[in-house]
Structure formats: C-alpha cells, structure tokens
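Each letter names a residue; structure tokens follow underneath. Both lines appear below:
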Amino acid sequence: MTVLPAPAQALLGSDAVAHVWTCNPDGTPQVSVVWVIVQDDEILFGADVTSRKVRNLTVNDRVVLSVEDSERNARGFQRHLVVHGRARVLPGPDPHLMDRLARKYLGLHRHPLALRDAPSAVVVQVTVERIAGVGPWVDEVQLASA
C-alpha cells in the first residue's frame, strides 16, 4: 500500500470529483464519475452493486482514478492526480459514508438519493498502489525515492 502524500489527500478532500476507470469483460475501459472520501490512506466511494463498474471490479480489481485540480503548475500544465490501485467491494449500504459524501459535495447533512439506504448499495475501497500525474503529490514521491 502506498501512503498518500498530504497534497494528494488535500486534492481528494476537496470537492473535485474522481473519474474511476475499470476494465470491461472485453478488455475495453469503462469510466464513471464518483464522489470520493479518503480514509486511512485508502479511497472510498459508494456505488450500486448492479453498476458496470462494480460488476467489473468483482472480476478484475484493478482500478485507476483521476482527479483534476483547479490549479496549474509553474510550467502551465493542469495539475491532476492519477491513482492506480486495487479495489475491494464491501457488501451492504453505508449510510454514514453516503452522508459524509453529501456533506462534502452538496453541503447536505443527509444524502438525497435512495442509494444511501438501498440494499443494492455497496462501498468500494481502493488500496493505493502508486500515484502519478502532475502536481506536488508526484514531486513528494520522487523526492522520497531519491
């Protein structure tokens, strides 16, 4: 497991959405937009067990998330974080997580969608294997390995 540097945690803690990439059965990529929370250096998001991304992850746990920052680096490139990892689908709904996501992204105390309490709701937990992209999260990793 890779420890997420503070700048990566800050971006993941912002209201920026993540694009999650999974692999379809035929090998083609599938992408979805998700709301994310960082907890103990892992990334969590809610989903419906019948969604293509969850069905893909039950067969192949490899996942990539990308998050675009609102800033540019000194060279003018758009900062972005790319997370490569392994996903684990946790059974059952987690209303607490869904409410945390609603507070973060909508400013609401309770998630407005039925997915919050739906029996088909699951939590996807992503263990980070490596990070890439353009931003201080990459700079910190490169400095640590030098």
